[in-house]
Specification:
This protein is mainly beta. The chain has helices spanning 3-7, 16-23, 89-95, and strands spanning 28-29, 31-37, 40-46, 49-53, 58-64, 78-83, 109-112, 115-118, 123-135, 138-150, 159-161, 164-166.
Length: 191
């Protein structure tokens, strides 16, 4: 089947593995989502996260319906999204359910904004579950951001791309200072 046939409304057959491999070419950051319940902190690795709105400040988090943490993502409950540093790959694996052969990596959660923030993260967002909707085998959780935290420099994030962890290339020039009042223009090519 050609691309022009697909554009005409026909769909090509593909497997779940094909889909996962293809969407894996969209590079993402890596986070640990934590929520307190019953005197315990429940946490999991997540990279299906995106900003949704600036006003109000909302984000989207997708959580597998089979994940243990999903049972605690109730409307109104607080959670924390800790954005991992490139040196925190072992924590990503641990909270993804892939513990190391030896002892688990060292980590601590600090109380922050009514949530539990992963110590040493690059940045974090405290959120309240605004809404939860079904999305296939996942829940689509809309979180209203209640607080933000920036860890100390350098805040080099851990990235995930095509099934592997990645890092940003070293900076060669300082990033431009983007003032809040500078308008952003986006141009689309006509089809």
């Amino acid at each position: 089947m050609t691309d022009s046939q697909l554009a005409g409304g026909l769909s090509a057959a593909f497997t779940a593995r094909d889909y996962r491999s293809t969407v894996g070419h969209f590079a993402t950051g890596v986070t640990v989502v934590s929520i307190q319940h019953g005197g315990h902190v429940h946490a999991m690795t997540a990279n299906a996260v995106t900003s949704l709105s600036l006003d109000p400040a909302l984000l989207i988090l997708c959580v597998s319906r089979a994940a243990k943490i999903a049972a605690h993502m109730e409307t109104g409950r607080l959670f924390c999204l800790s954005i991992l540093r490139e040196a925190q790959q072992a924590l990503s694996n641990y909270f993804a359910g892939r513990p190391p052969d030896g002892a688990p990596p060292d980590f601590e959660f600090d109380p922050w904004a009514g949530t539990a923030r992963l110590r040493g993260c690059a940045a974090a967002l405290a959120c309240r579950v605004e809404e939860q909707m079904p999305g296939g085998d996942h829940w689509v959780v809309v979180g209203r951001v209640a607080a933000v935290h920036l860890g100390p420099e350098p805040r080099r994030p851990l990235l995930f791309y095509a099934g592997s962890y990645r890092q940003l290339a070293p900076e060669t020039a300082p990033a431009p200072d983007l003032a809040d009042d500078v308008p952003v223009q986006i141009f689309y090519d006509p089809w």
